[in-house]
Design brief:
Length: 504
């Protein structure tokens, strides 16, 4: 027996970007070949795509951990790395993508609708792309950015036209089986239906779909029973049908009280979407009343007795029997007309609007200084500062901190962005800790004053990062002479050359 899965939690890991290549052209008769390192390839994205042939989320239930392909690193001779292949996940129509906190990210409706669930990391630039007028032969390359890692929740909402609601054993599954070719499990005991059933009703050249959810009981909004967990499958329905059992043996139940109890539970059910694909609030959907099981003795008398009170609701009333198929034809045509009327009055939203499918809003990129980052006090260190922003955090991920020239290039980028000036205005003092992303360093504004102050030095080095406490060659020579006894360690001399005979 196949399982019906309508809610899964996915753990997504997009592909990491490939590292850039640090290479110099070495060719005969070309002593100044210059840098030729290629760029790294972008990591693969994880994309959700609507497929009409998929009707359940079962595949994701057994394989929730999904990872895309990484980008290839660059190589010498200006060879760029290959891009990681995008991973396309097929989802059924009506899938809603949410965060772990319940925020709606996308509503997947319409064949071929795509949504980038996790974006792959950008590839790092090679040293050939980093060459400039002042830095003609960079001795470093940028690292590839890690792919986006997130957890998403997928919920499936059936795209049905008519939703059947009612108490357990009211005959909803039998009605779906009688109207369509669906063959749900039917038993003479409560809670036979443990998963939603979907059937297609054909009327000549026209058709509509009917959804059956597990039965509701009083207190379902507080967690009792099963039906409340599956009410998402009737959020998109154009018409709600109250299926009422007229042959119940419970003395405290009757068609009017059953409908009032169901409406109370529906009112307590808080939809996660205020407006679903242009259909409006669930409480405003048209309703019909279906009096079932009239073939049972005394059931018709119950229907006739309660009919005046049922007419007070103002909804169409249909008397049927799924066993004898009495009244099914009238019910089918009545549901078709109700669906057509409501669809005409409430046309679906056009794709590309807020209510018509997934609308992906790109992240804004500011221009100028001081718009791409914010500076706050470090809550863990009263003397420290935290720099947050898309650009500084990306640059931290791209920097190889084992390379001094790469660190100097990072300082130039931060200074050009305005981070140095902003830290000074915020009250930062030399030596205070500054945190950007996962990196914490001591802030010294004189070490990187901007790209225009870059002084070319050896490949992989930056003279601005050299400390003043480094022992010079002259000091190392004097210490060696003192150890060998050629000079007095405390005699700084008068400029004369060290000689053994001088101390004999």
């Amino acid at each position: 027996m196949s399982r019906f899965i309508d809610r899964v939690v996915l753990h997504l890991q997009a592909g990491d970007g490939g590292h850039g290549c640090n290479s110099v052209l070495r060719e005969k008769f070309k002593p100044l070949g210059g840098p030729d390192g290629g760029n790294g390839g972008h990591g693969g994205d994880i994309v959700l795509e609507v497929d009409p042939q998929i009707h359940t989320l079962m595949d994701f239930h057994f394989h929730p951990h999904i990872k895309a392909e990484k980008g290839k690193p660059g190589a010498g001779d200006h060879r760029n790395g290959a891009r990681g292949q995008d991973l396309i996940l097929k989802v059924p129509e009506g899938t809603v993508v949410l965060t772990k906190d319940g925020d709606v990210l996308a509503d997947m409706t319409g064949k071929g609708t795509r949504f980038i669930a996790a974006e792959g990391g950008y590839g790092g630039l090679g040293n050939a792309a980093l060459a400039s007028r002042s830095r003609k032969a960079p001795g470093f390359a940028l690292l590839g950015e890690p792919g986006e890692e997130k957890d998403l929740v997928l919920e499936l909402k059936s795209m049905a036209d008519v939703g059947l609601v009612g108490f357990p054993s009211a005959g909803k599954s039998s009605l779906v089986s009688a109207l369509s070719a669906a063959k749900p499990k039917i038993g003479d005991y409560p809670f036979t239906t443990l998963q939603p059933n979907l059937g297609v009703v054909n009327l000549g050249h026209e058709s509509f779909t009917v959804a059956d959810v597990p039965g509701l009981i009083p207190g379902a909004s507080e967690g009792r029973g099963l039906g409340l967990d599956f009410l998402r499958h009737i959020e998109r329905t154009a018409v709600l049908a109250h299926v009422v059992d007229c042959a119940t043996f419970e003395s405290d139940r009757d068609p009017v009280s059953d409908i009032k109890a169901l409406e109370h539970e529906l009112a307590n059910y808080q939809s996660e979407l205020a407006s679903d694909v242009g259909l409006g609030d669930l409480a405003e959907r048209p309703r019909v009343i279906v009096l079932n099981k009239l073939d049972v003795p005394d059931a018709r008398d119950m229907a006739d007795m309660m009919r005046p009170e049922l007419e007070e609701f103002g909804w169409p009333i249909y008397e049927i029997s799924t066993a004898t198929r009495e009244g099914l034809k009238e019910l089918s045509y009545g549901l078709k007309e109700a669906v057509a009327r409501y669809r005409k009055e409430n046309p679906p939203a056009k794709p590309g609007t807020a209510a018509g499918g997934a609308v992906i809003t790109p992240k804004g990129v500011g221009r100028g200084k001081g718009v791409d980052f914010t500076i706050d006090r470090d809550p863990q260190d009263p003397e420290g500062f935290v720099v947050t922003g898309r650009k500084p955090e990306r640059w931290i991920l791209q920097t190889d901190f084992e390379n001094d020239e790469a660190v100097g290039f990072l300082g130039d980028r931060l200074a050009k962005l305005g981070v140095e000036d902003a830290l000074a205005k915020a009250g930062a003092t030399p030596g205070c800790p500054v945190t950007i992303g996962d990196i914490t360093f001591e802030w010294h504004p004189l070490t990187a004053a901007g790209a225009e102050d870059f002084v070319p030095s050896g490949r992989g080095t930056d003279s601005r990062l050299e400390t003043t406490d480094r022992v010079s060659a002259e000091q190392r020579k004097r210490a060696s002479q003192a150890r060998r006894g050629l000079i007095d360690e405390m005699d700084f001399g008068d400029g004369a050359q060290a000689d053994r005979e001088r101390f004999q």
